[in-house]
Amino acid sequence: MVQSRNLFSFLNKDSTRANIIQGVALLLVLCLFLYLFSNAAHNLDRLGMMFGFDFLNSTAGFDISWSIIPYNPGMSYWRVFFVGITNTLVLSFVVIFFGTVIGTIVGILRLSHNPLVAQLARCYVEVVRNVPLLIQIIFWFTAVFSALPPPRRGYEFGGLFFLNNRGFYFPAPGTDISPIWFIGALCAFALGGWYLLRILRAVKITQAKMPLSILLGLGGWGVLLVACGGVASRFLSWSVPALDGFNLEGGQYIPAAFGAAFVAMTVYRSAAIAETVRAGMQSIDKGQHEAAATIGFSRYQTLRLVLIPQAVRAIIPPLANSWLVAVKDSSLAVAIGFPEVVSVFMQTSINQTGRAIEIISMVMGFYIVVSLIISYLLNRYNAHVQYKVR
Amino acid sequence: MNNDAGLKQFVAKPARVPPHNDQSLVRRIHSRCFNTPGNSVLTIAVIILAWYIIRSALDWAVFDAMWNADTRRECLNISPNGACWAGVISWFNGLIYGRYPADQQWRVDLGFILAVMWLFPLMSKKIAYRNFILVSWIGLYPFFGAYLFLGGEFGAEVGIIHALFTSLAAGFFILLYANWLLAALNQPDLCERVRPLVAWLFPRGIQVICLLVVWGALSLPVALILSQMALEPVAIERWGGLFLTLIIATFAITMSIPIGVVLALGRQSKLPVIHWMSLLTIELVRAVPLITVLFMAVTLLPIFLPSDMELDKLSQVLFAVCIFSGAYMAENIRGGLQAIPRGQYEAAQSLGLGYSMTMLLIVLPQALRLMIPNIMTSFISILKDTTLVSIIGLFDIMLMARNIANDKDWIGLHTEPIAMISILFFIICYSMSQYSLNLEKRLKADRS
């Protein structure tokens, strides 16, 4: 029988030790939080501030220069939060879309056999990657978009579209018809088109050719779309921007800050994605190139049928990560006054209400939710696309 | 059948002419740039595009540029389409040092030269305690640097602990260079020289005690000298420009390594509480943008810290940047730890080393060595991210550059300062990234 030699021999057992270490760590963290929150309670008391999310229902009272969803100063802080979120998401979405397209093209060009093309693409990537994004945003804002002529001398395209240092103006349907109708009609047409395409693909697979009826259906769908658009535009009042004094009135506009943030972020993202694409393409075994050449594929066919389908597996995970970074980077638009979530909610609203803890946790929560969603979709996709190992 | 008679004799066809294999420049260019019509069009388009870009950039930046002028108006009058570098030149000092007093700027230069010189002995293979050089750079140099940059008198503005560590840092620096010199001359180093004396006093632990004795003996005169002179105090608010940017980036990268090691080890831990706490910290920090962390540090730290503890803005920013880069570094280090073969852990275990000894002596030294290129890449990204502190109002190089446009002589001068700092960042970041690529190749070659 092994007898315990002394009082503390229980400490020699691994599981006991693990429990003690974890308990101490937990206790320390709890104490830290308790300390921080007691400080916070004391400080809030001292400064006469309050804690709680009730302020979200009170009137904001300040204007936001540009928003996707309708907003006016009489609306609540909830609305301000949603305006910020939608602006951030729209900016990130267009950046992700164009950044991915341009980045893929540049990444493939970097692997071109033509040395001039490859070097030009390399220069683009290196220059863009090695200059901080914030500098690029401010460069595009101050040196390009703000340097455009003022509205009175701005560029005009057919009397409908205007480009000047305030932004890009374009005609918009009047507000006498609810936008819900537009969205509904668009969705219906998109659904119809998608359904037609599905049938088309199924038919093509089974019959290896397209029957006339399907083509007629597709054509009819297109004609219907154009006709509906024509009829609708007869009954719509279009609001066209027109010069009024020193400014343009009517229509809708995209502010210069959006343009600068969009261009700078797209360029920056495309350089990062180009590197991802290049690394993914180079990860493919050389034998695949040679095999494709052996069966007589041209370079383009090799790329489309052999390389890209395999590279996608290697590219998607870092690509999704890059998209996540794009959403986070969109917060830099605060530097040029674009009203995204950090700007309208973390800056203006904290200044107005002083509810720093609540607001900061809400904004951070938003980014965490976005990143969780993208990670979840990525995992789903990865499980779907990985080689099926039998 | 008269097969036999009609059987054809096999005659080999004459061999085809070998493909042209002369690697002349003309042929190479032809085969890669003009082999198909499409490729030829592409080549010509690229040449025209590159020519156009280079031409207009050179026109703006060199041929039409103004280098000497007193105001922006003067620039515009003489050369409206060229760059007005005169404004940038007149503000150049501000871009580098911020609003640091002009007659004290030698302290900034000296501090940076010492910081770089501190690392030079690493190149020598002969010197003892090479690992200690990096540790001392992280642990001791900041005190010396803070003393140089902030200034003040020992016992007055400079607290007693700060003064102590400043002297120790200076002493260590002298010790380092003396040992390096002696090693280069193939002489025994200072510690060896005092060994007989120390051995006489302390029979055990000679190595460490020798080091401490020499170190202390060198630090004492430094402390005496430094306490006699007083550097003019410079408030933190006057720090700025590239100087501030580099301070924030360097501080963040050095602090992020210990934070990252702790978080990465925690994440790999088998204890669920530790594992989940580390995981949560890493993932939450990585999910949010740096600018929100900076805003949090600036607005929430004063609320969550005791009311009598007032932090200046730089400390708040440093706190935020360290946490942020620490979480990213943790993921890097986890990658490095996973690259260490299982056999190393098992070998350490079979030698009877515990967890902490395995990590400190076996795993981390190898993992960190493997990760030097990664750490450099992180440094580049931190350096680029540091520009964000301008949004919350620290006068780093970015905000200084934007401020030139507010100067009444140079009002509206936006493009040139931004172009200038873009070039600066490009040179720094590009050379570092090329160096880290080079290093990565060498490390790979070492291992295989």
From TrEMBL, chain B:
<feature type="transmembrane region" description="Helical">
    <location>
        <begin position="242"/>
        <end position="266"/>
    </location>
</feature>
<dbReference type="InterPro" id="IPR000515">
    <property type="entry name" value="MetI-like"/>
</dbReference>
<feature type="transmembrane region" description="Helical">
    <location>
        <begin position="388"/>
        <end position="405"/>
    </location>
</feature>
<feature type="transmembrane region" description="Helical">
    <location>
        <begin position="417"/>
        <end position="437"/>
    </location>
</feature>
<feature type="transmembrane region" description="Helical">
    <location>
        <begin position="41"/>
        <end position="62"/>
    </location>
</feature>
<feature type="transmembrane region" description="Helical">
    <location>
        <begin position="351"/>
        <end position="368"/>
    </location>
</feature>
<feature type="transmembrane region" description="Helical">
    <location>
        <begin position="206"/>
        <end position="230"/>
    </location>
</feature>
<keyword id="KW-0472">Membrane</keyword>
<dbReference type="InterPro" id="IPR010065">
    <property type="entry name" value="AA_ABC_transptr_permease_3TM"/>
</dbReference>
<feature type="transmembrane region" description="Helical">
    <location>
        <begin position="131"/>
        <end position="150"/>
    </location>
</feature>
<keyword id="KW-1003">Cell membrane</keyword>
<protein>
    <submittedName>
        <fullName>Polar amino acid ABC transporter permease</fullName>
    </submittedName>
</protein>
<feature type="domain" description="ABC transmembrane type-1">
    <location>
        <begin position="242"/>
        <end position="436"/>
    </location>
</feature>
<dbReference type="InterPro" id="IPR035906">
    <property type="entry name" value="MetI-like_sf"/>
</dbReference>
<dbReference type="GO" id="GO:0022857">
    <property type="term" value="F:transmembrane transporter activity"/>
</dbReference>
<keyword id="KW-0813">Transport</keyword>
<comment type="similarity">
    <text>Belongs to the binding-protein-dependent transport system permease family. HisMQ subfamily.</text>
</comment>
<keyword id="KW-0812">Transmembrane</keyword>
<feature type="transmembrane region" description="Helical">
    <location>
        <begin position="106"/>
        <end position="124"/>
    </location>
</feature>
<keyword id="KW-1133">Transmembrane helix</keyword>
<feature type="transmembrane region" description="Helical">
    <location>
        <begin position="162"/>
        <end position="185"/>
    </location>
</feature>
<feature type="transmembrane region" description="Helical">
    <location>
        <begin position="287"/>
        <end position="307"/>
    </location>
</feature>
<dbReference type="GO" id="GO:0043190">
    <property type="term" value="C:ATP-binding cassette (ABC) transporter complex"/>
</dbReference>
<dbReference type="GO" id="GO:0006865">
    <property type="term" value="P:amino acid transport"/>
</dbReference>
<dbReference type="Pfam" id="PF00528">
    <property type="entry name" value="BPD_transp_1"/>
</dbReference>
<dbReference type="InterPro" id="IPR043429">
    <property type="entry name" value="ArtM/GltK/GlnP/TcyL/YhdX-like"/>
</dbReference>
